[in-house]
């Protein structure tokens, strides 16, 4: 599988996230406070809630429903009630295109 264009970099506002789907995989694409772009599994591991609807703060995203925050770098939950990490995918920026391959997990 190869990387797929999911959005334009210019579509991502700082400290915000959008939900995309690539080959049936739901992914939250997030632009953090440092203008870095991250791609993580979009479903909170505590409940079936879209993380893209959550709150971005620094390099974390918080699930709006129960307050679990996840590291955008590692996918690890930073507080309860979630205790399982979400997958983190490699992101490639080419010009204004944001590309993600859901088969390629980011190396930590």
Whole-number radius of gyration?
13 Å
* Average of pLDDT: 94
Please provide the ordered H/E string of secondary-structure elements. Answer: EEEEEEEEE
CATH topology: the name is: Rieske Iron-sulfur Protein
Helical residue percent? under 10%
For the record, the CATH class is Mainly Beta
What is the count of β-strands? 9
Please identify, by name, the CATH architecture.
3-layer Sandwich
Strand order of the largest sheet: 1-9-8-4-3-2
- Provide the structure class: mainly beta
Shape: globular
Instruction: Describe the sheet with the most strands.
Output: 6 strands, antiparallel
Domain Rieske: 4-100
InterPro entries: Rieske_2Fe-2S, Rieske_2Fe-2S_sf
Pfam families: Rieske
Keywords: 2Fe-2S, Iron, Iron-sulfur, Metal-binding
